[in-house]
Design goal:
The protein has a domain at 18-36 and 93-103. By secondary structure, it is an alpha/beta fold. The protein is built from 3 helices and 4 strands; from the N terminus they run βαββαβα. The protein has helices at residues 21-29, 79-89, 108-121; strands at residues 6-14, 50-58, 61-69, 96-99. Helix content is 25%, strand content 23%. The two termini are 25 Å apart.
Length: 134
């Protein structure tokens, strides 16, 4: 028996251009929603924050997932601007921040951007905490 109650969860995908945030979002969605850019050319302008929705049933519960793709968030000089746009898009209530990294490389730019996100969203931005009822 399915629950009539739908749980809405916002998943924000964070990562440097070329690390696969769009691919990760498309995998979660089960469809090609976000444009995938394979270019590592730093002269290419980064994209805007995009959102898409999908519904999934997990253990008899319906979940409406809002997937937020943040292409190029970790590009130098772009973190604060994209983070502010992200705050608008997520209505200040993201449930999950998924940091998408290459397994073989963690750059100084990514470390700097992660620190910037800690300053913007708080020290617990990358820690699991399910104690809130929001």
């Amino acid at each position: 028996m399915m629950s009539d109650f739908i749980h809405e969860k916002t998943i924000v995908l964070l990562g440097k251009k070329g690390n696969g945030t769009s691919s990760t979002g498309n995998t979660i969605l089960g469809r090609q929603e976000f444009k995938q850019k394979r270019s590592m050319d730093t002269t290419v302008l980064t994209g805007k924050v995009e959102t898409a929705r999908c519904c999934r049933t997990i253990s008899h519960y319906e979940f409406d997932f809002i997937i937020v793709d943040t292409p190029g968030l970790f590009e130098t000089g772009n973190v604060a601007e994209t983070a502010l746009e992200l705050l608008e898009v997520t209505d200040l209530k993201p449930h999950v921040f998924a940091l998408v990294l290459r397994a073989d490389l963690f750059t100084d730019d990514e470390k700097c951007a992660a620190n910037m996100l800690r300053m913007i969203f708080g020290e617990n931005v990358f820690k699991h905490d399910d104690s809130t009822n929001a």
